Amino acid sequence: MIANDSLYSSFVVNKAIIENVKIQLSEKEIVNFDEIEVDKKYRASLAWLENNLYHVDEVDELSKLILHSERLKGYKKYLLQALIRRAMIRKLPYSRMNIDWKNILKLRDEEYSYKKYSRRRAYHNEPFINHILKDLPEYNAAIFDNNRKNKVYQLDALVAMKKAGKVDVIYVDPPYPHTMNNYNGFYGKFDKIFGKEIDYQDITVAKNFLSYFEKLIEIASRSANYFVLSLNSRSQSVFDTMIDMFSFYGSVEIKQKKHNYQISGKSEKNNNTEMLAIVKFYK
Fold first, then answer.
1. CB distance 65 to 80 below 8 Å
2. Helix (H) or strand (E) holding 193
3. What is the C-alpha separation between 192 and 63, in angstroms, rounded?
4. Cα–Cα–Cα angle for 174, 214, 161, nearest 5°?
5. What is the pTM of this model?
6. Strands, DSSP E only, in the chain?
7. Residue 257, burial from CB neighbour count under 10 angstroms (0-12, 13-18, 19+)
8. pLDDT tens track for 44-79
9. Does 263 score more than 80 pLDDT?
10. CA–CA distances in Å: residue 196 to residues 33, 168, 199, 268
11. pLDDT by residue (tens digit) across 109-133?
12. Among 108-122, 165-179, 199-213, 252-266, which is the least confidently predicted range?
């Protein structure tokens, strides 16, 4: 298996669980993170997070966890960074990093949350380490050996496909125009924290999306037997054009299923259909 994502926030999860087939992380290797002395210059480099995503004392804790992860070797580093990512998201309302500070404060207010949603959402206010230790067993349990050499990239998809070479199936789940799948906005600040931002094609504009996928499907037709693409009914404006494009290269089968998309809001969350386009290339 070869996995790729342009965001480092996804790359660390892929390294920890897909490429890694046996290395686990123990609680003992994490709990001493608080003993780390954070260099003032490094701490200052994270000051932009203060009263932006987290409170000052939370950024203090986060800085120690990040430095601790960098001191770990091999897949243990990626496991801890994947857990840090999960904890960062868990502490944010709507699990996104593009919520403004005013709304973060409002939605982290447990009394307001209780009055508004009948839930206090206390997990937003727990320390990062609490989330990490809680999720650690599940992350370790997700690691298994499939008796294959798995590889993970952090590249633009076109570059990754060329680098991967011949494969059986290519599966793609991209951010679509006219949807809320703004992955860079949701999770890109994680990449900034670790200094791992890369250049990649922005395909959230319809014109760029279709042009990009024309190149993608052409490369895929020469390197794979099947191309599988996740689609959403909210991307209907580009759906028909893409199916016509795929039909030039192979037979196309569409499967679909209703999906409750939680972050769409009450009026929209039940109006989504997830679709799967399966292209069997002509040979």
1. yes
2. helix 183-194
3. 13
4. 60
5. 0.90
6. 2-4, 151-153, 169-172, 226-232, 250-259, 272-281
7. exposed
8. 999 999 999 999 999 999 999 999 999 999 999 999
9. no
10. 22, 30, 10, 34
11. 999 888 888 888 899 999 999 999 9
12. 252-266
Residue type at 257 in one-letter notation: K
Are 88 and 62 in contact by the 8 Å Cβ rule? The answer is yes
Q: What is the rounded CA–CA span in Å between residue 218 and residue 229?
A: 14
Contact 18, 3 (CB under 8 A): yes
Phi, psi (5° rounding) for residue 29? -80, -5
**Closest-CA residue to 23 (of 78, 86, 76, 80):** 76
- Residues 255, 270 contacting (CB under 8 angstroms): no
Tokens of residue 281, six digits: 């290339």
